Amino acid sequence: MTVTEPRTARGQETKRKILQAAEAVFTEHGYAGASVSKITDRAGVGQGTFYLYFPTKHEVFVELVDDLNRRVRHAMSQGAQRGSTRMEAEREGFREFFRFIAAHPGIYRVVREAEFVAPEAMRRHYTRIVDGYVDGLTAAKSAGEIDPDVDPTVTAWALMGVGEMIGMRWILWEGGGQVPDDVLDEMTRFIRHGLGSAPAPTQGADRIPHDTAQEET
Prior knowledge:
Blueprint: H1 9-33, H2 36-43, H3 47-53, H4 57-80, H5 86-103, H6 106-117, H7 119-142, H8 152-173, H9 181-195
């Protein structure tokens, strides 16, 4: 079964409302506890409208995983573009990643449930993030910004794991809404040593460079 793409602006808005409702329902109830009726009630649309866009609950779940992935990669890419060096890109990209998951903490539950409900979507989520990361690390390696012996693929997977665990610890578990600056600084210091990057110039205080470049694909 395939998802129907809206042809009008109104249709696009309706589909967006359904996806937003699906995010809330899957986050609160999990895949098994979610239902089309709960999603449509939350979205304020009829079930007939739901089926215009999504054949089943499974299809809206898969679309939600892909949608969250597109949005988090966009946020990280926008953050990374603020950096003029690789390490600045690292810091600012991760900053936006943390902001996104603070606003959408359900991404953890949704992606983890995808391992069992839609494994292809879960794998697509991680590999799309890593593919962009590999491109950024490869470019930084060619430019001499990081250790020439760094393996971009292995490093991309490792750094993605770092970001996911930091977000889980300080945002999901503590619910503080943000990763503290001192944690972000320590994380950046760790990444800088791992990449073999030179420390950024300081201005007065010991300021650590900036965070995680994820290109959109």
